UniProtKB/TrEMBL annotation, chain A:
Record's protein name: ABC-type spermidine/putrescine transport system permease subunit I
Ranges of residues in domain ABC transmembrane type-1: 84-290
Transmembrane helix recorded as keyword: yes
Keyword set includes 4Fe-4S: no
Matches recorded under InterPro entries: MetI-like, MetI-like_sf
Entry GO CC: plasma membrane
Organism field: Hoeflea halophila
Pfam families referenced in this protein's UniProt entry, alphabetically: BPD_transp_1
Automatic annotation (TrEMBL), chain B:
Chain ranges of the ABC transmembrane type-1 domain: 62-254
Entry keyword annotation includes Membrane: yes
PANTHER family per the UniProt record, alphabetical: PUTRESCINE TRANSPORT SYSTEM PERMEASE PROTEIN POTI
Alphabetical list of InterPro entries matching this protein: Bact_Polyamine_Transport, MetI-like, MetI-like_sf
Record membrane topology: Multi-pass membrane protein
GO cellular component: plasma membrane
Keywords: Cell membrane, Membrane, Transmembrane, Transmembrane helix, Transport
Keyword Membrane: yes
A Pfam family per the record: BPD_transp_1
Gene Ontology BP, a term: transmembrane transport
Name the UniProt record assigns to this protein: ABC-type spermidine/putrescine transport system permease subunit II
Recorded family membership: Belongs to the binding-protein-dependent transport system permease family. CysTW subfamily.
Ranges that cross the membrane: 7-32, 68-90, 102-125, 131-154, 175-195, 233-254
C-alpha cells in the first residue's frame, strides 16, 4: 500500500480526531492557561496574550508570568468553596432521590406485557427530545406561590397557607429529578429487561422470601445499570446551571451558576476559568469511571 | 415463570409517567388560556399563538435556531459516523485512548465548561462570534452523541458482507456506502435527529459562543422566562414540543416500516431456497 492510500484509509480516524483535538482538547488547554493568567481590563479581559509573532524569549517570559493567583483567590473566598460543596450535596441528594423514583418505574416497565413495553420505552425517551429549558420552565408555573400545586393543596384542604417551594433548594431537587429521570430509568431498564427471570424463581424455590429474592438477585444484577444511571444523573447535575438559576433562589449556591455569574455579570474570565478547572478536577473521577463502564459495555456487546 | 405485572408495578409505572408528563401537559393547556395570568383559567383562546407570529424578535430567533440546528446536525452526523467507524473498526491506532476519551467526555461534560472553553478558543483565534461560532460549537458536542448512537448499531453489524464486496473488487468507500450504510442508516438518521434537537435545545453553550445578531430561540425564551411566566412563552414551547413530537413519531414509524420490510425480504429470501 502506498502512502496516499494509507492516508485515505485513515481519513476515517484523522478527520474526527483533528476536529476533536481542535474544538475539544485545545479549548481546555486555553481554559487552563487563562485560569493561570491575570485579570486585565480590556478585550479580551486577561493577560498575557500569546501571539505567534512573539519571539522565544518573550514567549518564555509570558509563560513564567502564569501563576496560581486565581486559585488562591478561590480558596480564600468561602463563596466558592461553599458553591462546590453545595453543588456536590445537591447533586448527590437528587441522584439518590432520582434512583428511588426511577428504579420502581424501570422495574415496572421491565415487567410490563410484551406488547406494551416498546410503547412505554418510547414514552420514557420522548421527554429527552423536548427542550430541557421548557421542561424546567413548566415547573415554575406549578411550584410558585400562587401556582397550580399550591392551588390544588389549598383546595384539598391539606394546607392553609401556600407552601414556599419555588426559589428554594426543594424546587432545585424537583427540577433535577424531573429533568434527569429518563437518564436513570433507561440504563436500569435495559439491565432488568435482559435479566433471566428463572434466577428469581430459583431463589424462591430455595426458600428465599419475595423481598429476599428481589434484594439478593434482582437488585444485585441491576447494579451496572444503577451505577450508569447514577453517574449520568450526578455528573451533569453538579455543573447544572439552568435548574438552579430558574427554580432556585438567591440562597441556592451551585457552581454552574457561580461560574455563569462570574463570566457574564462580573466579566471575570480568569476566575470563571479557574472555577471550570476545579469543577473538572472534581468530576474527573466519576467521568473516567463512566467512560470505562461505557467502553466495557461496548466490548461486551461485540 | 411468566413475568407478573403486579399492582405495585402498574402503580409505579402510572405514577412515573404522570410525573414525567403532567408538567408538559399543564404547560400546553395553559398556552390556550385566555387570561394573561398564567395560573388562572379564563377560557379557551388561541390569541397567544396569533401574538407569536407578530413578534418579529421571536421569529428571527426561531429562524437562526433552525438554521444552526440543521447545519450543525448535518455536519455532526458525518463526523460522528466517521468517529463511530473509527472506534469500532480500528481497535489499534496511536492515541486511540485519547480519541475514545474525547468522544465520550462531552456526553457528560457540564455545559458551562464546554461553552466557556469554546468561547476562549474563538476569542484567542479572533473568530468573530455569531452564527458560525454557535454552529461550530454545536457540531462539536453533538458529533459525540451521533458517534455513540451509530457505534451501538455498527458493533452488531456483520462486517464480512462488506469484506465480501471488497473481495469482489468493490473499492472500500463504495463498499461502505453500498453495504454498510443502508444497514446502519436508521441509527444515522436517529443520530441526526438527536443532534438536531440537542442544538434546538441548547441554551448554555449558545449563550457563551453566540455574538450579536445570532440570538437563538432558547436564549430568547430564557431572557423572557427570567421576567416571569407568560402565555406567549407557553405557546412557543407548545409549538416546539409539537414539532419535536411529530418528528419523533414519524421517525419511529419509518424505522418500524423499514424493519418490517427487511424481515419480509429475509423471509422471502429464505423461501426461495
Amino acid at each position: 500500500m502506498n502512502i496516499v492510500s494509507a492516508i485515505k484509509a485513515r481519513l476515517v480516524i484523522i478527520v474526527p480526531y483533528i476536529w476533536l483535538l481542535f474544538f475539544f482538547l485545545l479549548p481546555f488547554l486555553l481554559v487552563l492557561k487563562i485560569a493561570l493568567s491575570d485579570l486585565e481590563y480590556g478585550q479580551p479581559p486577561y493577560a498575557p496574550q500569546f501571539s505567534f509573532s512573539d519571539g522565544w524569549g518573550e514567549f518564555w517570559s509570558k509563560l513564567t508570568s502564569l501563576d496560581l493567583e486565581n486559585f488562591i483567590f478561590l480558596i480564600g473566598d468561602s463563596l466558592y468553596i461553599n458553591s462546590y460543596l453545595s453543588s456536590l450535596q445537591i447533586a448527590f441528594v437528587s441522584t439518590v432521590l432520582t434512583l428511588l423514583i426511577g428504579f420502581p418505574l424501570a422495574y415496572g416497565m421491565a415487567r410490563a406485557p410484551d406488547g406494551l413495553r416498546p410503547i412505554l420505552l418510547m414514552l420514557v425517551i420522548l421527554p429527552f427530545w423536548t427542550s430541557f429549558l421548557i421542561r424546567v420552565y413548566a415547573w415554575i408555573g406549578i411550584l410558585k406561590q400562587e401556582g397550580l400545586l399550591n392551588q390544588l393543596l389549598l383546595w384539598l384542604g391539606l394546607i392553609h397557607t401556600p407552601l414556599e417551594i419555588l426559589s428554594t433548594n426543594k424546587a432545585v431537587y424537583i427540577g433535577i429529578i424531573y429533568s434527569y429521570l429518563p437518564f436513570m430509568v433507561l440504563p436500569i431498564y435495559s439491565t432488568l429487561e435482559k435479566m433471566d427471570e428463572s434466577l428469581v424463581e430459583a431463589a424462591r424455590d430455595l426458600g428465599c422470601t419475595r423481598i429476599g429474592a428481589f434484594w439478593k438477585v434482582t437488585a444485585r444484577l441491576a447494579v451496572p445499570g444503577i451505577l450508569a444511571g447514577c453517574l449520568l444523573v450526578f455528573i451533569p447535575a453538579v455543573g447544572e446551571f439552568v435548574i438552579p438559576d430558574l427554580l432556585g433562589g438567591s440562597g441556592t449556591l451551585m457552581i454552574g451558576k457561580t461560574l455563569w455569574i462570574e463570566f457574564f455579570n462580573n466579566s471575570d474570565w480568569t476566575v470563571a476559568s479557574a472555577l471550570a478547572i476545579i469543577l473538572l478536577i472534581v468530576l474527573v473521577v466519576p467521568i473516567v469511571w463512566f467512560q470505562n463502564a461505557q467502553a466495557r459495555a461496548t466490548e461486551q456487546s461485540r | 415463570m411468566r413475568k407478573r405485572w403486579t399492582w405495585f408495578n402498574i402503580t409505579s409505572v402510572i405514577f412515573g409517567f404522570a410525573f414525567l408528563y403532567l408538567p408538559i401537559v399543564l404547560l400546553v393547556i395553559y398556552s390556550f388560556n385566555e387570561s394573561r395570568l398564567v395560573t388562572v383559567w379564563a377560557g379557551f383562546s388561541t390569541k397567544w399563538y396569533g401574538e407569536l407570529f407578530r413578534n418579529q424578535g421571536l421569529l428571527d430567533a426561531a429562524w437562526v435556531t433552525v438554521r444552526v440546528a440543521f447545519l450543525s446536525a448535518s455536519i455532526a452526523t458525518v463526523l460522528g459516523t466517521l468517529a463511530a467507524v473509527a472506534l469500532v473498526r480500528y481497535t489499534r491506532f496511536n492515541g486511540r485512548t485519547l480519541f475514545t476519551g474525547m468522544v465520550y467526555a462531552p456526553l457528560v461534560m457540564p455545559e458551562v465548561i464546554t461553552g466557556l472553553s469554546l468561547l476562549l478558543l474563538f476569542v484567542s483565534i479572533n473568530f468573530a462570534r455569531g452564527f458560525w461560532t454557535v454552529t461550530l460549537a454545536h457540531i462539536t458536542f453533538s458529533l459525540c452523541f451521533v458517534a455513540v448512537v451509530v457505534q451501538s448499531r455498527l458493533v452488531s453489524f456483520d462486517r464480512s458482507l462488506e469484506e465480501a464486496a471488497q473481495d469482489l473488487g468493490c473499492p472500500p468507500f463504495r463498499a461502505f456506502t453500498l453495504i454498510t450504510l443502508p444497514v446502519i442508516l436508521p441509527a444515522v438518521i436517529s443520530g441526526w435527529m438527536l443532534a438536531f434537537t440537542l442544538s434546538l435545545d441548547d441554551l448554555v453553550i449558545a449563550s457563551f459562543t453566540s455574538g450579536p445578531g445570532a440570538t437563538t430561540l432558547p436564549m430568547k425564551i430564557y431572557s423572557q422566562v427570567r421576567l416571569g411566566v407568560t402565555p406567549e412563552i407557553n405557546a412557543v414551547c407548545t409549538l416546539l414540543i409539537g414539532v419535536v413530537t411529530i418528528g419523533v413519531i414519524i421517525a419511529s414509524l419509518l424505522t418500524k416500516s423499514r424493519e418490517v420490510r427487511r424481515r419480509r425480504d429475509e423471509q422471502a429470501a429464505l423461501g426461495n431456497h
